[in-house]
C-alpha cells in the first residue's frame, strides 16, 4: 500500500527540519558549547554517582532533587521551576499550553530558529519583528505587532542567537508591561552577560525565564530550566511528558549542582578568552565582528560559503549562517580554548592574506 501523505499536517509539509552539519573537525567552534570537558575531580564524582543508577527503574518523575538544588542556587521557589529535555522541549510545552486565544507567537528576526519551527509544527501563526540596525528590538514595530496580532506568546532571547547581543532591558520591560501575553525571556547565555531577568519575575504576572545547562559544559545531558509564577508552571507541567529527564542526566546534574564552583571557573575562562578572540578577529581585514554578550561572535565577511569551506579544509568547524537578509555572508564562531582560538586566528590570517 502506498504511503498517504495527505495524513501529514500541511504546516509540517512546508517546514524544513532543524539540521546541524555533521562535519568532523579537530577544532569544533560551531555549536556554542563550552570547549571544556569535565575536570578530573568532577568527572570522578560523576562516574561514581552513575554506578548507583538502577537501570531497570524509571527516573524520579518530579525531579525533586534537582529542582530543590536549583531553588537553593537561584533563591527561587521550587514550585516555580520546571525542567525539560533541553530548552527545546520546554519551548514546545510553552507553545502547546499558552496558545488559547489568538494562536499566534511573536518573535524578533533574526533569532533562535526553534521558536518559529516549533510554533509552525503545532499549527500556530508566527509573526516576526525585524531587529533594528544594532540588532536590538525595534520597539515601535514590536509594539505595533502586539496591538495588531494580540499574540498569546512572545519569545525574546537575550543575549540573542545568532546575533550575540543582549536586548535593551528597558525595551523588554516596556514590552512586558504593554501585553498580557506570556513573555518568555530565553537566557540561554546569561552566564556570559550582565543582564538577568530571573530576579524580576515576581514583578510581572506574565513573565517566564528560560535557561539551559548546554552552554556551560553539559550539552550532552540535555537539561533546560524554566522559572515562572508557580500558578503558570502548574499549567505548563500538565503538558510535560512523564519521566522526561532520564536517570543518567538526573544523576549527573545532582553532582554538578553540588560542585558548581568548578563550572563557574570554566565560565570565567570563556569570558577571558572571549576578549582575546575578539581582539584577534578585529585585527583581520575582511571581517566585521559584531559585539557579543554571549560565548560566540557573529562575523560578517565577503563570502561566508568560501570561508566556511576553507576553514573545514584546515580542520576547523564554524557555523555558516549565510541567509538572505541581515545574515547574508555571516558566520558564527564559538569561543574555544586558547589553543583552539589561536589555530582559528592563524587560519583566518592565512586565508585573508592570500
Distance between the termini: 58 Å
Strand content: 15-25%
Query: Any idea what the radius of gyration is?
Result: 21 Å
Q: What's the oligomerization state?
A: single chain
Give the strand order of the largest sheet, numbering strands 1, 2, ... along the chain.
Answer: 2-8-7-6-5-3-4
Q: If classified by CATH, what would the architecture of the largest domain be?
A: 3-Layer(aba) Sandwich
Overview of this protein structure:
The protein has 354 residues and is α/β, with parallel strands linked by helices. It folds into two domains: 5-39 and 261-353, Aspartate Aminotransferase, domain 1; 54-258, Type I PLP-dependent aspartate aminotransferase-like (Major domain) (Aspartate Aminotransferase, domain 2), CATH 3.40.640.10. Helices cover 39% and strands 15% of the residues. The chain has twelve helices and 13 strands. It has helices at 10-14, 40-50, 64-74, 86-97, 113-121, 139-149, 169-177, 230-237, 247-258, 260-282, 304-313, 338-353; strands at residues 27-28, 81-84, 104-109, 125-130, 153-157, 182-186, 207-212, 224-227, 288-289, 296-300, 316-317, 319-320, 330-334. The protein has a seven-stranded mixed sheet, sandwiched between helices. β9 and β10 (296-300) form a beta hairpin. The longest helix has 23 residues, at 260-282.
Reconstruct the topology from this structure.
Elements: H1 10-14, E1 27-28, H2 40-50, H3 64-74, E2 81-84, H4 86-97, E3 104-109, H5 113-121, E4 125-130, H6 139-149, E5 153-157, H7 169-177, E6 182-186, E7 207-212, E8 224-227, H8 230-237, H9 247-258, H10 260-282, E9 288-289, E10 296-300, H11 304-313, E11 316-317, E12 319-320, E13 330-334, H12 338-353
Parallel strand pairs: 1-11, 3-4, 3-5, 5-6, 6-7
Antiparallel strand pairs: 2-8, 7-8, 9-10, 10-13, 12-13
Helix pairs in contact: 2-9, 3-9, 4-5, 10-12
